[in-house]
Amino acid sequence: MFYRQYAQASTTSLSDDADDDEPTQSNFFAADQPLLVDATVQPHWSSKATPSLKPKSALASPIATVPPEILIYILKHLALPRDLFNALRVSRTWCECAIELLWLKPTFSRASTLEKVARLLKRPRSTFSYAKFIRRLNFLPLAEILKDDVFFAFSHCDRLERLTLNGCKHLTAPALQSTLCNFPNLVAVDLTNVVDTTSDVIIAFASIAKRLQGINLQGCKKVTDSALTALAENCPLLRRVKLSGLAAVTDAGVSAIVKGCPLLLEIDLHQCVLITDIAVRDIWTYSLFMRELRLSMCKLITDLAFPSPIRLGDKTATANFFPQRESDELQPFITDRIYEHLRMLDLTACANITDDAIEGIISHAPKIRNLVLSKCLLLTDRSVESICALGRNLHYLHLGHASKVTDRAVKTLARACNRIRYVDFASQFENLLV
After folding, report:
1. Domain at 297-434, CATH from 3.80.10, 1.10.1060, 3.40.50, 3.10.20
2. How many CB atoms neighbour CB 190 within 10 A?
3. 397 pairs with which residues across the strands?
4. Which of 59, 100, 128, 394 could form a Cys-Cys staple with 390, CB 3.0–4.6 A?
5. Domain ranges of the chain
6. What does the alpha-carbon distance between residue 151 and residue 183 come to, in Å, rounded to a whole number?
7. What does the DSSP 8-state code read for residue 78?
8. Of 358, 340, 364, which Cα lies nearest the Cα of 409?
9. How many angstroms separate the CA atoms of 94 and 184, rounded?
10. What is the pLDDT of residues 20-42, one digit of tens each?
11. What is the mean pLDDT of residues 329-357?
């Protein structure tokens, strides 16, 4: 009975979600028929077996003395899910250790598999509490067919840590709110293009997600500043926030995030068209550990969003982190801080920035590796000369459509940044001799 119930439950495989660095395992049940254990084969630990028939050496086996914690660590190194399946057939102890690993991060390659798992999780009684084992869920392979009723079956997975709903466009706001609020241990959630995600959903979820470190809201156009404020107030451990395409988000929401989440490492504001210099200055002021900053297509940004250049001998400059909001005109942003953690900056199509902005950025962030300045039409050779100060740190540079850059600056760049791996000067070949 135990094996038959397990065989119905074991329709998933070990895999990882899209944000993990580990390699994805192949599907456990690639065949159409599920793996069933032969009921005629009696396991040596069965209650029907005669104890006197067991070899004395088996009773005194050293493996029986291994603590469960060590056994689980050993089983983690099995390469294939099928090996875990075989290991759980050894004994009751091995089964209890292997079953949790097998259900840690299930993958759904077929709709039938997803429905079987959903039905199993709804059962009031089962051999194991399978919902307690699940820590990671990735619905991307079946995003087009995932519906509210199936998704709600996973609400019992209260130990869930990572959830990927990328492209699950059929999920409604009530189902999202009622289910997400059952995951208090979530560390990362990806809601990319879940179009019915609203501010109310995020506000309700933020109230219980105290451990949240990463959230992806790309394409969730119904999310507004109120949702970001709720995240800032309830999720102080946030490190990665992606808001690409949220046209309704303004400076107020972004400022709330950067002020309430001091550990931010990455923020993506691509196509957040209402963002101005005020929000960007708050990022420089409060996010001292920032590694990746994307401001592409934020066309309202000017030089005043960035720190002013550090010039030796300028004794009149005093720190001016943020002017009064009542002021109609921003003053230059003067700071003596060095942002050594910043590695990636994307300013694509920020057409109002000039050479002064680039000089200020490089002087305060001397270890940038990836710099994207495509379609920044006002940049000249002076910007390239400032970029040369990055030296061996620079690996990637995009200056496409910066038509005022000439071959002289490119030669200087080649000499100064001798570890560069990619450089793009598209649409300006007429200005270059190389």
Report:
1. 3.80.10
2. 25
3. 371, 423
4. 394
5. 297-434
6. 13
7. -
8. 358
9. 30
10. 333 333 333 232 223 333 333 33
11. 94
